[in-house]
Amino acid sequence: MAALKKTDLYIKGLKIAWDEINQNSYLRNIRTIAGISSLTFHAPITFFVGENGSGKSTLLEAMAVAYGFNPEGGTVNYNFSTYDSHSELCDALTLSKSFQKVYCGYYLRAESFYNVATMEEEYSETEAEWKKLKLHKKSHGESFLTIINEYFNSNGLFFLDEPEAALSPQRQMTLLLKIAESVKKNSQFFIVTHSPVLLTLPGAEILSFDNDNLHKIEYVETESYRISEMFINHREQILKRLLS
Fold it and tell me: Which of 104, 105, 111 is nearest to 86 (CA)?
């Protein structure tokens, strides 16, 4: 089964109606976000990269919530709230969707994964299903991989916010393989990441939030790659400068 073509992507693009957002909203101070009125996606894997605070997770969250996912994560069937922290951006954002049917999906965010794991027992359809997951009985990384293996299937739509946070470099390669396999089975991914491992996925579109404007870049242009390469190749000089 081939990967989704551009014309078949579940989410083809988005528009933001800024007149529906309060003039005093902090969203207007996130320059990269404030510069977006519309956006078109071109690949089944879209990476959001950039420095902390540049708006990557804010946009990803708004897209996930606008599609119907719970703000704290989980599948579209999850409906709980331990802390209402998502922005108003989701209410002003309109997604351009295809007529292709999505059969599965998941919004995975590192910062609220504990809450999702806690709710798994309640949302599991059977006791056997919950016992199979046992998320709180596993390490953070093992729990992540359990969710990945359980939910990443064909014809799916997935939003991942810094999925590498709990994963070793080796497990990041496991995740990379799982994403690639799912894409071949007609799945689409939007991923916020700082991982130079995940960013190597072939055919992905990388959108940078740096320099106050959203723009497409290549893998070797990402800060994740450039800094990792520089540190590995010149670690002694860098450490001497940092620690002196």
Answer: 111
Task: From 148, 147, 202, 135, select the one nearest 175 (Cα to Cα).
Answer: 148
CA end-to-end span of the chain, whole Å?
55
Nearest to 182 by CA among 163, 210, 195: 163
Bridging pattern class, strands 93-97 and 11-16: antiparallel
Q: Residues with Cβ < 8 Å from 147, sequence gap 6 or more?
A: 106, 108, 133, 135
Task: Please give the tally of structural domains in the chain.
Answer: 1
pTM over 0.85: yes
Q: Please state the φ and ψ torsions of residue 2, each to the nearest 5 degrees.
A: -80, 160
Range of the domain at 163: 6-243
Q: Exposed, middle or buried, 68 (CB in 10 Å: 0-12/13-18/19+)?
A: middle
CA distance 47 to 160: 10
Identity of the residue numbered 21? I
pLDDT digits (tens, 9 = 90+) for 3-55: 777 668 999 999 999 999 999 999 999 999 999 999 999 999 999 999 999 99
CATH number of the domain residue 98 falls in:
3.40.50.300
